[in-house]
């Protein structure tokens, strides 16, 4: 490309001449993603556009080169060779394209052969409403990866150390030419570890870890609710090459109760009253988590009325005290089939006194027989 045919670097990146470094970098990143050879295989025009954008960025991202270009244009670089793109010449190229096209450390990479932490484990545990209220101690049984005792975690037979990978010479990456670029990729032979096990351990087959069944006693505090999790530090899987253990997370699920419902630390239940109890008042017994409690129902209590029994609910997790037990009143309407003649007559008499008529009584066969003998 001669000086006469070169396009203006600012025009190539579509930025103003007073654009700051951030705008120049963003413009180049956009063009690099659009015209990168990986996204346009075999497209010579796209490759040229990519080279052109890279050359423009290599000049405009350097304050000294940019100042020379602003003053003299392309002529300012005559005699110094072409301003071609070389990713090893500026450090932020991998920052711009890393993670998009697989570009990494252009200096050769670093093997991932150091300690790596173990994975976290999850254990789902269901407990009853009462266990959640008062706390519970249980024993968990689970399986996890631990350091192989036969090879002491090396993965080699009788504890032999892994050999340096011949595919990458222990760097964990291999380099190859892609068009005009030199690209570093994770070594397919060692998976980036930089070492390989030639004679695997018979117990772990070269993994360095084996699956072991464990039991663990866990104390669940009072007041937990569904979704709460207990973190047991260091009870997860053993890391590779001596890395630290992961953690074990116990996820709690509280079963529903037959008569109680929960709202935070408060517990709700329904109280059925007969019409006379609601109308005239009564002393009734309410079942709570902490045993039966007497409740004074005042005369004229209406359906839906709520009563509060303080500190008879759930313990407050991580705090002192308990929630309340809250009672919602419902009126129990008797089944006519279970009413005696006297009860039916009294209800009918009450309706007459209130001036609110009720449905006429259906005379059955037995009533007609009684009338006949009478």
Walk me through the structure.
This protein is an alpha+beta fold. It folds into 4 domains: 3-97, Helix Hairpins (Orthogonal Bundle), CATH 1.10.287.110; 121-254, Ribbon (Chaperone, DNAj Protein, Chain A), CATH 2.10.230; 261-331, Urease metallochaperone UreE, N-terminal domain (HSP40/DNAj peptide-binding domain, Sandwich), CATH 2.60.260; 341-373, no CATH class. It is built from 9 helices and 15 strands. It has a 4-stranded mixed sheet. Strands 1-9-8 form a 3-stranded mixed sheet. Strands 2-7 form a two-stranded antiparallel ribbon. α2 packs antiparallel against α3. It starts with 8 loop residues before the first helix and ends with a helix. Residues 81-94 and 102-109 have low confidence and may be disordered.
